[in-house]
Amino acid sequence: MVVVKMIALVLSLGMDNLLVSLSLGMARTRGTLKIALAFVSAEALMPLMGLLIGKEASQLVGPWAPLGGALALLTLAIWLLWFDRDQREADNARNLHGLALLMAAFSVSVDELAVGFSIGLVGVPVTLTVGLIAVQAFIFTILGMTIGSQIQGHVGEWAEKLGGGVLGLLGLLIAFYAVSRLLR
Questions:
Q1: How far is CA 104 from CA 53, 119, 154, 171, in A?
Q2: What domain range includes position 39?
Q3: Which pTM does this prediction carry?
Q4: Most exposed of 8, 84, 151, 181 (fewest Cβ within 10 Å)?
């Protein structure tokens, strides 16, 4: 039963990572390995931070964590949709770095923070769970960016806008969910 819990947990946590990576791939973002390592680092550290922060802090931070992730996703979507560049730059791939890379990594890993708050209660081994989350993050990032870059070739110049739109919709959905939970 523990194996089923772990697989369900790890795969469900990877869906946002896969969607963000697909969007980044469609936007022709360079640095797949750098992005994958940033996502892995964030996704592995967040549950540990949640575990260290503990249950008391989770009562305060827990409900706000999804809203923070939603705002980071919306910021990344805006960057993809309205990033100002001239025609010469349009022929080149983007390079995600600095604050934008940190925000992307944060946006896909904020749900792991909430998982860390309750990881002990779920009854799964912490080290193995964090390790599997990191492996999932790496695989889903590489897979998502690779597939996204392939889709981009078929969708053309609108792939970047589509990727930004998907991120924006995901951010809005998470924000709506977070606000509705805060208002309860």
A1: 22, 23, 25, 12
A2: 2-183
A3: 0.69
A4: 84
